[in-house]
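Sanity check

After download, print the first record. It should look like this:
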Amino acid sequence: MKVILTQDVPKVGNRDEVLELSEGYAQNVLISKGKAILATPKALADLENRRSSLNKKKEDEAKTFSELISNLNDKKVIIKVKTNEKGNLFKSVGAKDVSVAIKESTGLIIEEGNIIMDHLKEKGSHKVTLKRGNLKGECEIIIESI
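Expected structure tokens:
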């Protein structure tokens, strides 16, 4: 019996996977518990439509992110933090701080999960990697004291 999984099932398959399973297992375990649906022509067509729309959405997000990266490549983002007399920072600068600073200075929104960096603990210029999927870019962050 052909079924389409509606959720990940350990040792069986992943969501939206079309599988050929024994009729008893498919009916009594997967379909009755809502973990799968019968693979009718309409259900297969719906699955294909959902996959194509997901692929289009991913392509659009990748295009948008590559535009963000190209806009940030030649810009410098300045973050002002409190320091002591020696110039040491009172707190480290993390991905959230960088995300907020990019939004304030350029108006571009980069989620902190897309910023790959160690916590910055010194004043000066630092390179930060922006990554989403297999797209990568860099942004220069300048930390100054208030």
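If your output differs, re-run the checksum step. Summary of this record's structure: The chain has a mean pLDDT of 91.
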